[in-house]
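Bumping with the actual sequence this time:
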Amino acid sequence: MLKLRDTAVALSIACFAGVAPAHAAPALTKIAEADLPGPGGLRFDYLRVDAAGGRLFVTHLSANQIYVVGLNDLRVIGTIKGTPGVEDVAYVPELNRLYTSNWGENKIGVVDLTRMEVVERIATANKPDGIEYVSAVGKVYVSNERGKVESVIDVRTNKTIAEIKFDSETGVPRYDSVAGKLYVNLQDRSVIAVIDPTTDKITDRIPVPGCSGNHGMALDPEHHRMFLGCEGGSKLAVVDLDRGQVIATFDLPAGVDFVDYDPGLRRIYAACGAGAIAIVQQDDPDHYRRLEDLRAESVHTVVVDPSTHLVYATQEREGGRGIARLVVFQPTP
């Protein structure tokens, strides 16, 4: 039986010491794939890794369901139904729950992972999309993209306790546990809103000029850097959060969506709907270089397992044929 996590190829000691690896093409190599329950040809959305639990959460937006997949063998542990238009999920480990952003009903689903069932639904604003759990305060933050609202849910009561309103559509939110700040994309304004989760007040706004349609976001809390997928013009922007400045940009293949960061290898991955995973190396906090645009048909979401450095993506089409597939890539040191 396939044992991905047990047999993942060891990366060089230099990688783990924080030394930028010398690039040898390809930067990613496909090592495994598995068909998901489907149906094929329908859009997937976000992926989230539970590294401690050895699970991957896969949202199949157009199929209205979520798959829970074992990271070691790619076996589907469970399929969670009743999540119309599900986009993103937030995992709350201490409660063994998922919170799901269900665009199809404008509600947040509360999933009991022991039962693999939706046990509660919480009304929210129009088009819930990105969602983030902040364990330090026991709250889930939901970007209601078209409602222009960040909803705040208390996981102890499953009640909405605040609504933070903006003059822009909201994109992916991400929490920086080092700085204690929540960052939210204001994608109509090329701005990042900074929220204090202890008060749910906006404390700052960081302009990101040249990053139109800033939607995807990943963070490097150690070095106070942010990586943004800019849908307008399809770019990757690197932001110095201390200075509040964009310090690097890269032109990407069309259709950039989700962005993730591997802190161990210091690599940024950007999924591009045109059929590529763009890979950028962080040599140091101020210097970045393009490694590769890896051909990957119908991929617009990627996620890294930081414990193994394996990269996961979903595919919904191949050669014009509808599929429902999970693909695993091994990075080249």
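The tokens above came from a reply further down the thread. The chain is about 0% helix and 55% strand.
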